[in-house]
Every structure is written in structure tokens, then in C-alpha cells.
Amino acid sequence: MSGSENIPEFILDRVQKPARYLGNEWNSCHKDHEQVSLRMAFAFPDLYEVGMSNQGLKILYHSVNSNPELLMERVFAPASDLEKLLRSYGKPLFALESGKSLASFDVIGFSLQYELSYSNVLNMLDLALLPLYSNQRLQTDPLIIGGGPCAFNPEPLAPFFDLFVLGEAEEILPQLLKTLLTLKHTVKDRRELLAKIAAVKGVYIPGFYQPLYRAGKFQGLKKLHPNAPEWIEKNFVADLDQSPYPTAPVIPYIQTVHDRAVVEIFRGCARGCRFCQAGYIFKPVRRRSPEKIVDLATKIIDSSGYDEISLSSLSSSDYPRIDDLIYTLNCKLAGHKVRCSLPSLRMDSYSVALAEELHQGKRSTLTFAPEAATERLRRVIGKNISETDIYKALEEAVKAGWQGFKLYFMIGLPTEEESDVVAIAELCHLLRQHFRRQGKTNIRFSVSVATFVPKAHSPFQWEPQLQLVDVLKRQRLLLDSFNKMPWVDFSWHDAEASLLEAVFARGDRRLAPLIEQAWRLGCRFDGWSEHFQFDLWMQAFNDLDLSPADYANRRFDHDEPLPWDHLYSGVDKDLLINEHNLASSLNENRWSE
Amino acid sequence: MSRIRFIFSRGTELAYLSHLDLMRLFQRAIRRSKLPVAYSQGFNPHMRFTIALPLPLGVTGDNEFAEVYFTNPLAPQLFHDSLSAQLTVGLNLKKAWTVEENLPSIAAQIAAARYKVKLLPEVKTKPDPAMLRAAITELLATDQILLPKTNKKKKLIYTNIRPFIYELTAVSETDWPFSLDMLVKAGSEGGVAPLFLLEKLEEEGLNPDDQDYYWKIHRESLYTELDGSLKPLTEGM
After folding, report:
1. Which of A230, A383, B12, B120 suits B142 as a labelling partner, its CA being 20 to 30 A distant?
2. What pLDDT, in 10s, does the model give residues B129-179?
3. What is the DSSP string of A252-288?
């Protein structure tokens, strides 16, 4: 029953957190491989505790496994200790539920949540003893598919995959698998098989297109197969109330990043911050009805035993009458000792009132994301909160008893100057003084600063990322300022990792050999600062005569073809250009004022 | 308020859970069972559930004790059936009974634990019986075995755990793989982990070629102190 068909006890004895690899958690789904017609492994290219916090995994696991003829098992990137043991004992990577080797599945589906997991994708294919490149795999090998936000520009990974599924997959994936199931026995040729599903909405078969380059620049794609569509339209769920949602989620043994019940209350975001890819690729905004939310929440609490339920979305305080919803939920779950939480609060006094309702006596820290510290820059990026909003929100919160605040900012934003960066520290200083004058001397801040990464399908997709030296300089500026403020806990994202993220976010297929080379040099878990090896990545760039700056630090032209132009997010390029122009004009306004 | 104690076993399927993982698993199972479990008072209420002695990661157990408080009187059989329905393979609820509220906590009653240890056959050259005998004799002959531990002030301190070894014998020295039986001090007053003793035996000549030994450790029973002598904890206690 434990995933020990492939993993002997003496291997589990030697690894950290062996409970990651057991696969027999409460609510996990165990089907007889002989009794189903199609087997898919859901592969998450990061550690168990990260992957098991991903709601997409839970939704797809449920939507596929509720079909009797289909089976989905899970596999995560093994930590380095297990990787070493698997390699030294010649054991293939296995799926958790059955312990069966990944290569024995019909389909392996990778969840592509962030660019810094790409080296892990290759590592998992290799540990599964499969050839990395699609054109080197046999017809009997599993079909390798990918989905998730990075599938909106999967070009750097294109040669490794047979197909990508664009957009939300919970409705299309079971259908696609059933189609594959009927074709499996009649169509033996891999290319012929792919041709037959090329017209399915959201299916992108990279092998049917060939990129063209001139003078080192991407010129567009050439179609290689008559069935390949000109452009691929994303899938999205029309009605959240009718879409599949897991009411009996798998309960991890070990503590995961988000270890709680989750009900997604709406999808998409009406705000449209110009740096935010999620705000564009998850359009339109669709709400789940309050009745459905309460129904799901009750069922999940019953089946899981969780003591916390998170009402998740990209901006949860934007849900209409969220206060009523929380009240109803609290009444319904009273006596169950269940806490409600909202992961993403807008920075205004309404949200503070909500937080007060939620915390009921407990005062931890309150988290907000102003993103930029000057009103001008916030206008440019489309984060429309005013100085007054910030002061009012904190004022209310302090009045209600909060003393600790976590604030998220970005540096390297378009039009940003050093003065905008210094303003982050100044804002903290002014707020502290403001409250000190009121006799509140204990106000503390935890400030986290990320580096802006231009993302495909966002209005800032043409913007260059700030040069690495300047990012480091601005981080240093902040560090110097915050060193004088012992009441601020300052943390920042690794600048080199953000550079790599920008390279892949706007990358093309010429980066595939680079990923392979970096992986061969030993790169794994690039999103983890303790594992990230920038020097190896730089060596790989050198080996392949590529430059990260060409992808990350170059301003793209509005009229140049983009490697992801054929993937349609639902937002027209003209609209993105307008938004981008608007941001630039807002910046100019500042000078004309 | 009522108080129920129970005995459970943990098999190999869930041996690789840490103590905290197992606590969480039980607490979630109890919540799913919808039994009227009691919580502590205060801002951060926690479920009144205790496991008598943490099972180390990788160790299986046959007679593990735990207790839980309820806000209402509850029939032990109902508790047994409701909780069992929320547990999967690898955890088995064996017996449950009501205890007086004024009894000391189950954790405070633990004085010792008995382990059965097997050497897994993933070893190239096996130690011979004489080696095992010699290593045990050697180890028991010393009057000081120092266990290093960092205390709360992050200072390294040493405890002499030689007096903590009550019994240490070879169950089978001829059969391959051989097994050991040990009764050692355990509980809130201090104790020793079986793996530490096994490392000491390896140092005493049990592992001359310095191979990777894989030990399978099983906790057979827990002991309490009654009238100055050790007695196995049993149902109803």
C-alpha cells in the first residue's frame, strides 16, 4: 500500500522527511492499474510540500479520478538525497500511489507554475529513464504534456514536450484523456495521434511549428502540419459553480506550505495591475456563488479534519459582500473550531475590518502588497491605492490591535528611479513616526522586496528587466536604509534568480539546449536559494553562446513578433499595447505637472 | 468532561511519520469523527490529546498509548469505532477505555520501553555471533556511556545513559539477520533512543568493516513504575 513497490525501506531510512514519498495519505486515490483504461501521472517539478499546496493539482486529481476509466497519480521532484539513492540503486522515479515507475504511465502531465522549476522537469524525465526530447521518445513512451501559467509561453521547454494544454484544464483534461483512450489502440504513430487531437481547444503541439529567426531575432512560427491551428485559444471554465472541485482533498502527513482547506471563491482579477500575468491569463472574472462556497467549505471540513479554511482568489476582499459570506461561514462552522482566512487583502480600511472579523482575538501580522512606495509609480503599474489608503488601513489595523505588518514591494519596475526605491524605506520610517506620535511605539514591519520580471501576456511584457548590477545596487540601497531601522525585518529575492526567471518568461526555443546544459552541469531546484547555482547557469549560457541580457534586459518592440503570439490568453495584443502606452503616458504626466 | 485512553499499533506503512506528523494525523482523524473532543482554554485552543511517548521516525510499535478528553461522557466502544473509521492502514486502534479524571497524565506514567531490533539483510558481510556477544558484553561492562545533547541554552551537555539500560540481549545470534531485545529508560525523566545504543554497539566492534547497517526498530511495549519495579502498561491502566 505504501509506495514501496519501488522504494525499499532502507532507502526511506536514509532520506529526509520520508513521509513525502509514502503516497497513502488520507483521501489519496488508489486504483488498480489493470482496471482502468488510461493512466496519467501528475508531475509537479518541486518538492512535495510545495506541490501539495497547489490547488490546481487537487482540482485535476479530483476531476480526472472521478472518471472510473481514468487514473491519476502524483509525483513530485525528489529531494537531492532521494535522487542520489535512486541513481545509485538504478531505481526509476515512481508515482506515489502505486509506486509504479513513471515510464509505465500513458501520460505524464507536468504542472508548470514557475520558470525556476524547468531544470527539475528535465531531471524528473531523466529519473523516469525517458529521453528528454520529444523526437527521441518512442511511441510506447508516455505522452509528455504540460500545463499551468508557464504554458502561456512554454517555448523554452517546447522540444521536451509532446503537447501543452493552454488555460484552465479541469474540464478539458478528462475529455482529452478519453479522446486519447479511444485513439490509443487504433493510432499507433505518435505524430498521427497528435494530429488527431491538434484541433482540441487549448491543445498546443509544439512539434507542429517551427520557429524562424533572422539576424538572431525571432521572426515567427512556420506551420509544419496542416492540422495545426494558426493560434491556440485557452480553455476557461464558464461557470465555477458547475465546474469540478475537490471536496475530499488529499491530506498530507508532513506540514506543507499551505496546510489548510481551500475554497476558491472566484477566479480572475478585475484589477489589472500591469505587471501581473495572472491578472490577464485568468480573465474573465468568474465568481462562485455564496451558497456553493458554503456547501464546499462544509464538505471539505468534514472530509479533511482541517481547522483552517482559506477563501482563496487573486484578491479576496474584492468578492462582493465578502463580509456576509464570512459571517455565514462562521455561523455554519461554529463549534467545529475552524478558522477562516483570506490570503490576499486589499490595502484599505474595509479589508482591515474583514481581518478583524476573521482573527477574533488573535492578532498575528497583517499582510499587504503596496508593490511600490510612491503614488506616481503605483499609478504607472496600475496598483491604484493612494497614500491615504495606506495610512487609513494601517491606522484602522493599529487601532484594532495589530502591531506587525508584512509589506510586499517590487523593485526594478518600469520608470522606477532610485528615489522610488529609497521611498520604500522612507514610507516605513514615516509610518513608524506617525504611530509613535500616537504613543504606539511597538509597530514593526516585515518588508519583502521582489525584482520585477516582465511576463508574457501582461502589458509590461515589452519592458526590459533592470540590469543585474542596478538591481543589486538598489537592493544595497534598501539594505543600508533598513540597517538603521531595527524594527524592520527586511528580506529580498535573489537578483540572479529573478534574472533567470525573466530570461525564461520571455524565452524562445533556443533556450531548450541551455536548460539541458544547466541541468547536466547539476542545476536543480533553482527557486531555492540554497540550491540555486547561478555560476553554473552562466557557464551554460557561455557554453551555448547565449546571452541572458538578450532575453531579460532588452526592450521588445510593439511590432516585433513575440515567441508566444500564437498562444491566445483572451486579451488582444492591441489592448495590452494600449495599457502599456497608458502606463508610459502616466509617467510623462508627472513631468508635465 | 470524560477521559479516554487507548492502545494503538503502528505498522510499517506509517513508520516514516514523525511524532508531530502522527499527532496531526490523530487530531484530524478525531475532528473528522465528530466526537465531542475537548479543547484547552485561551486564545489559541489546542485539542486535549496526548501520545504517551513519541515514536521515533522509522520505528513501528505494537502497544502505544494515547489519551483524549471529551466534553461529554463517551462510551469507549463508540470512540473506538468512530475513530477507527477515520484511520487508514498502518494505524490500528486496539483497545479503548475510560479512566478517572484525577489520574496523572499518560505521559507522566511512562518509565521505560522495550524494543526489538533487527538488522536488515542489506549488508554484504554479516557480523558473526561471537562479535555480537562481545559487543554487548563490552558495552555493558563500561560504567559510563555519554549521550551528547544540546540544552535549551544551546550548550552541549553529556548524560551518562549506562544506568538507563535495564536489559540488552541477543535474541538470536545464529539466525541471519540477528535480532536484539532491549529494555531502556524512557519518558519525561529522561531516556535513551535505541538507535544511539545500536551505534554504540557498532563502535564496540559489531561493525568492523564500517558498512551501512540498516536497523529495523520495533517498540514492543511501554513500562510504568509500580511499587518500585517496572511493569508493562496494559489495557485499563
Report:
1. B120
2. 788 888 999 999 999 999 998 888 889 999 999 999 999 998 876 666 678
3. -SS--SS-SEEEE-EES-SS--TT-HHHHHTPSPEEP
Q: Which residue in B has a C-alpha nearest to residue A363's C-alpha?
A: B43
pTM above 0.80, yes or no: yes
Long-range contacts of A214-222 (CB under 8 A, 24+ apart): A216/A550, A217/A560, A218/A508, A218/A560, A218/A561, A218/A562, A218/A563, A219/A561, A220/A561, A220/A565, A221/A566
Give A542's contacts (C-beta < 8 A, 6+ positions apart).
none
pLDDT at site A2: 42
CB < 8 Å from B in window 319-338 of A = 336-337
Residues of chain A found within 8 Å of residue B217, distances taken between Cβ atoms: none
Average pLDDT for consecutive 10-residue bins of chain A (593 residues)?
A: 57 92 96 97 98 97 98 98 94 95 97 98 98 96 98 98 98 97 91 96 98 95 96 97 97 95 95 95 96 97 95 92 91 86 83 80 80 96 92 90 93 97 97 93 95 98 98 97 96 97 98 98 97 98 97 97 97 96 76 39
Residues in chain B whose Cβ is within 8 Å of chain A: 12-14, 16-18, 20-21, 24-25, 27-32, 39, 43-45, 57-58, 86, 88-90, 120, 122, 214, 216
Position B237 in a domain: no
What is the complex's ipTM, to 2 decimals? Answer: 0.92
Q: How many domains does chain B have?
A: 2
Element (H, E) at B117: strand B112-119
Interface residue A9 vs chain B (CB under 8 A): yes
Interface test with A, best of B14, B16, B68, B218 (most A CBs within 10 A): B16
Whole domain around residue B24: which residue ranges? 2-109
Q: A13: distance to nearest CA of chain B, Å?
A: 7
Are residue B89 and residue B116 in the same domain, yes or no?
A: no
